[in-house]
Automatic annotation (TrEMBL):
Protein name: Uncharacterized protein
Highest taxon of source: Bacteria
Organism of origin: Brachybacterium avium
Lineage: Bacteria, Bacillati, Actinomycetota, Actinomycetes, Micrococcales
Amino acid sequence: MLQIFEAVTVLHRRGYHRIRFVAMSSPSGLGVRMFVRRQSEVPGGHPREEFLDQVAHTSLNDADEPARDFADTSIPAWWSAEMIADQLLAVLPPISPLADDPAYAAELEELFEHHRAEGTVPLTERDAY
């Protein structure tokens, strides 16, 4: 999950500030649902109903998986954040790198750095973001 989160920060550094990363607990509380979509598709940090079937699920207790299905491919653990960012751009609906929301990009980068340092799961619904 942190790899994909980092890939979103890479996209923000490339100017794609309207791409959003959202991670929240599943209804059971035993897993995490992760979304990477355009801002218009996750208003207020919650995915619109028509995008719920495009959820990437990951379980909190299977972190040693050699690869994860996400963004129309199987992403192996060895992929770099740049490789994942390229894959995300390939499957997301078209978006331009306008670099028009630097405050969001900076806050998300800070949130990523906090979770990377702590080794924690980035549940954006719970964080002060």
